[in-house]
Amino acid sequence: MPDKWVRIWNERLPDVPLILTQVPAGTAQGLLLGGDADAGLVRLPVDRTVLSAIPLYTEQTVVVVPKDHLVTAVDTVSPEDLADDIVLHPLDDVLAWESLPGRPALERPATTADAIELVAAGIGVLVVPLSLARLHHRKDLTHRPLEPAPGSSVALSWPEAATTDRVEDLIGIVRGRTVNSTRGRRQQPAQEKKPAQEKKRPERTARRQQPAGGSAGRGRRGGTGGTPKSPRRGRPRRGS
Predict the structure, then answer these.
(1) Where along the sequence do coiled-coil regions lie (predicted)?
(2) Residue bearing the bigger pLDDT, 33 or 224
(3) How distant, in Å, are the alpha carbons of 17, 209, 216, 228 from that of 225?
């Protein structure tokens, strides 16, 4: 999704390049508040007193394990299935494993990438949002959905005091508005409708055709009347 939004931005605003930079989840809010980024795709919750946020979607939580782990035999893993495993909880991770049923994490690697290396070494398993499992995919590792487990909500966030026109443009793209959308900052001025022209009725120019050789309505016996009269029959006269 982020790549799609960047592509749409560059198509609509080619003179204002949008650069997408990946940062550790734990540092995203600090970068926004420090002015090092205009907006960010962050995991909730964020400090709503200083940051604005538009929730976008919620990611499924999965557990990353070696391919020969026992839980690969099932389609869905429960927290109880990991009771005998060391659950790695990276310092840059925002998922609260402690809130899940079962025991808390025992290892705190610095980053998710470091935790992936420990999983590959067989030291523990890792609970992360699905996108991070895909981002750090390795051939010797796999993942399974973890249920029940809290999802990880992703939001578009920016400093409350820095709601600029460009941020409004980005909000429109992320929300799927078209370039001609009437919502948001970039509204196109409404075009004045031209008054509808009255349709003129075509003038009747056809005339009745006159029969050949005379004026209209002339009878066989001449004259100006219409239908010719039949000859009048007289009564027989009586003899004198």
Answers:
(1) none
(2) 33
(3) 91, 18, 10, 7
